[in-house]
Amino acid sequence: MVPPGDDEDDRALSPEETLRLIATQRAETARFLGGDPLLFYGTWGVAWVIGFGAYFLHYGLSGRAYAPISGGQALMILLVALALALAVTMYAGIRQGTQVRGPSQARGTMYGLTWFFAFFAQGVIGGHFSGMLPPAQAGLLWSCLSILVVSILFMAGAAVWNQPLMFLIGVWISAMNMIGVAAGPGWHALLVAAGVGGGFIVIGLVLRLRQRTA
């Protein structure tokens, strides 16, 4: 029979064990409230790889298609991939949002609405000018405007949430976008698919690994 007070579960924790327990609980809380980085970055990374990869196969690097994919088919593939990614991340965001209240929830709501209005404005602007351009340049205009919105909102989000990594990702997206625009439609599609989409997948995997080891 174990004497009272000698039970392993009843003994006082040492300072080292207490610190470990606090660190573990903080990591679990961060995982719970911060969401799964691989779910976000990985989902959008795959969508961009597939969608802009289809455009890359359509344009090619020298103006000759690498696969029998029309511009309309490439656009449809991109839109379906983005819609699926949006559905997944919205579902995850709604579940996460039910656990967060107060100023953080308000900031998140305003930031989410900013994405909606920014892309609405991008659609109006792109729709006005795309009819004045050749098909390849019109496609490049739509793509570069979309990536521009994403890069700016990443950097703005970094300021809102105090996330330096998010700011650097926004800078990286902007750099890929500018280089791609200068190089042409095929190169732009390749850089966005591999450099941004592939980069998102790598970032998600690295952040997931850091969470597990935190």
List keywords for this structure.
0% strand; mainly alpha; 214 residues; disordered N terminus; single chain; globular; 81% helix; 7 helices
- How far apart the termini lie comes to 39 Å
Shape: globular
Query: Strand-and-helix sequence, N→C?
Result: HHHHHHH
How many domains make up the coordinates? 1
Tally of strands: 0
Question: Which range does the strand content fall in?
Answer: under 5%
Whole-number mean pLDDT = 83
Transmembrane segments: 38-61, 73-92, 113-133, 139-158, 189-209
Keywords: Membrane, Transmembrane, Transmembrane helix
Organism: Sphaerisporangium corydalis
Protein name: Transporter
Describe the overall structure:
With 214 residues, this protein is mostly helical. The protein has one domain (35-213). Helix content is 81%, strand content 0%. It is built from 7 helices and no strands. The chain has helices at residues 15-34, 37-59, 71-97, 103-130, 135-161, 164-183, 185-213. Helix 2 packs antiparallel against helix 3 (71-97), helix 5 packs antiparallel against helix 6 and helix 5 runs parallel beside helix 7. The two termini are 39 Å apart.
